[in-house]
Automatic annotation (TrEMBL):
Organism name: Algoriphagus namhaensis
Top-rank taxon, per record: Bacteria
PROSITE patterns: PROKAR_LIPOPROTEIN (PS51257)
Protein name in UniProt: DUF4221 domain-containing protein
Length: 388
């Protein structure tokens, strides 16, 4: 019997060992991770120009691009073959004459929206106008980022930061900050805009004692699932809202940049002006939700007075030289933020220009850095986020 019991005890010991919890392998802290955009594919278009990718249709069959020099729009297939080419900027019954205020974005496999400073236009892939959604008021515009992704889409709603109703009503400075709404929501079924989302109570731009310039509180919006994310240009914070509760953030996340220079309050109630110094403060240029509670943030740290003042004095009036010298010492790039900590700046190969389309961490599209290469064709690089 003893000889028969030995295998039973051995089996019991083996099962106990197998059912014990495996030892957890500690993950590298985000602050210690060295990340990189790795090029692994490209879209090549037989066209000599300054093309960037605006969007990819939901079915993946159509790529929407624009030439930054001419504003000509191209539709290609995934192989880069040009299916359509047309220009919508300028005079014409179906064209837009205002400044383009961001990149176009698909709302279906056949249609896309193109934002301008006073309206949002709805076109099909042939460039035929379907609808023009006019704001109906003069927006508060201090900064236009024509290559920014600043339209949030959810079902038949479009979230945009083209705000300024209160300013048209005569509200300025602190009075404007008290009553202003950050977002306008366009209902694509009714064509109506609805103002929503005041400055968050915990934001410095909701101050009742200090007025800030519109350049400082220029807003970015991103929509992911049920969440709407808002950030302001000169505030190191992300505000997360549920789409059904846009008057108060569900979560407020302060981003721990090592250095982020804040602008001084405005000197008067006119928020439309700015000082040269305001161009060299910290900025959040975009926030992209990338999944798993993480965000990709494009930012500038800004320069301290002792760093920028000598440049402003020495290069007086030569704006291109001022920016050239400032960029040499400014900290700039993209980082990953997990709600608590940030990664080092993600390494970007020199061939890569601006990021214009994020699909997933495995599919991130960049324009060509034209200062690094000269081609007789256009190329858009497909990258993924990897750890070195």
């Amino acid at each position: 019997m003893k000889n028969q019991l030995l295998p039973v005890w051995s089996l019991a010991f083996f099962l106990l060992a197998c059912t014990s919890e495996p030892e957890e392998i500690p993950q590298t802290p985000l602050s210690d991770r060295n990340l990189e955009f790795e090029i692994y594919d490209s879209l090549v278009v037989d066209y000599l120009g300054n093309l960037i990718l605006m969007d990819i249709s939901p079915d993946g069959e159509s790529f929407l691009l624009i030439d930054q020099n001419t504003d000509s729009i191209f539709v290609t297939n995934p192989e880069g073959n040009i299916l359509n080419k047309y220009k919508l900027a300028g005079d014409g019954p179906e064209n837009y004459t205002e400044s383009r205020s961001g990149l176009a974005k698909f709302i279906s496999p056949e249609e896309y929206l193109l934002p301008t400073s006073t309206a949002i236009y709805r076109y099909n892939l042939d460039g035929k106008l379907g609808e023009k959604y006019e704001l109906g008021f003069s927006p508060n515009i201090m900064l236009i980022v024509s290559n920014g992704d600043n339209l949030g889409l959810r079902e038949n709603k479009v979230y945009t930061t083209m705000s300024g109703r209160a300013m048209e009503e005569g509200k300025m400075g602190i009075e404007y900050q008290k009553v202003a709404n950050v977002l306008e929501i366009l209902d694509l079924e009714t064509g109506e805009y609805t103002p929503t989302t005041p400055f968050p109570r915990m934001s410095r731009f909701s101050s009742e004692t200090e007025s800030h310039t519109s350049l400082a509180y220029y807003a970015n919006v991103a929509v992911n699932g049920d969440s709407v994310f808002i950030s302001f240009r000169n505030e190191p914070t992300i505000y997360s809202y549920h789409y059904t509760q846009l008057d108060s953030p569900a979560r407020v996340m302060d981003v721990p940049f090592g250095n982020f220079i804040l602008s001084e309050p405005a000197e008067d109630e006119d928020q439309s002006g700015f000082r040269m110094r305001d161009l060299f403060v910290g900025t959040i240029n975009s926030v992209i939700p990338i999944g798993d509670g993480q965000y990709m943030i494009d930012y500038l740290s800004g320069l301290k007075d002792e760093e920028i003042n000598p440049i402003l004095s020495e290069m007086s009036g030569d704006f291109s030289k001022i920016f050239e010298e400032a960029n040499k010492i400014n900290t700039a790039g993209r980082v990953i933020f997990d709600g608590k900590s940030i990664s080092p700046i993600i390494h970007k190969p020199k061939l890569l220009g601006s990021l214009t389309k994020f699909v997933s961490q495995e599919e991130i599209w960049f324009a060509l850095n034209f200062s690094e290469a000269e081609n007789d064709y256009s190329v858009i690089y497909k990258t993924r986020l990897i750890e070195k």
